Amino acid sequence: MVVSSSPDQSQEARLEHHRHPAGKRALVTGGGRGIGRVIARDLTRAGVHVTILGRTAQSLSDAVAAGDACAFAVADVTDATALEAAVRTAEAAGPIDILVNNAGHAETGPAKRLERGLFDRMIAVNLTAAFEAIRLVLPGMLARGRGRIITIASTAGLTGYPYVAAYCAAKHGVVGLTRALAKEVATSGVTINAVCPGFTETDLVAGSIETIVAKTGRTPDAALADLTRSMPIGRLIRPEEVAHAVLWLASDEAAAVTGLALPIAGGEIA
Prior knowledge:
The protein is α/β, with parallel strands linked by helices. The protein folds into two domains: about 1-5 and about 20-200 and about 240-260, NAD(P)-binding Rossmann-like Domain (Rossmann fold, 3-Layer(aba) Sandwich), CATH 3.40.50.720; about 200-235, no CATH class. Helix content is about 45%, strand content about 15%. It has helices at about 35-45, 55-65, 80-90, 115-145, 165-185, 205-215, 220-230, 240-250, and strands at about 1-5, 25-30, 50-55, 70-75, 100, 145-150, 190-195, 260-265. It has an eight-stranded mixed sheet with strand order 1-4-3-2-5-6-7-8, with helices on both faces. The longest helix has 29 residues, at about 115-145. The chain is globular.
């Protein structure tokens, strides 16, 4: 299902420091909240027609009503049939020029209790779903000779963290997929990149803090300090900082940038 709405005039102001020609269309998965919604908002304000995709119609509808996107599609990215139906419906209104694979999820557990089910879930939502979305839009981009594919990976795709081995494996897979495909289509006019945020102010990190508090008895402030200790910047990353990187990679100025796994991590990956 895809539902459209016209954004408020106040949301149509262009971000002049990036060139996004009128008529470009983007699909942002996991676009109803967190980083995905901020990415959708900034692309919309840059003049791009943005469709957001996710599992919860209410949050998607709220984002469209607020002018942060132009349309929404309801689908679980781990359901290949539903994902394809949503993408094809979105494409019926016009070809997708920009794909942002943002949907993702992390589950924790010690190595000695790592279960196959958890591992499979992490691969499915963080890696396979990104592959499926790329598989659906890439042929059209190649045929038109232009396109931008940006996957939100993680610093967990560039290094290891304890208790999230399956998540790290999936995000490393995303980075490898990005680099391989980028080289394969480098002369096509299609760029393929990954953005790798560190700990970011999102529901995901809030959940991690709650888990630390529940398991260790530490205060929320102490748990937050644990997460930021490895970050030279001394604070969490803001969703807007991730969105700015995506906006640049999606722009005409980044036509020569492909195969990049860009850390937005306050110096953690240096």
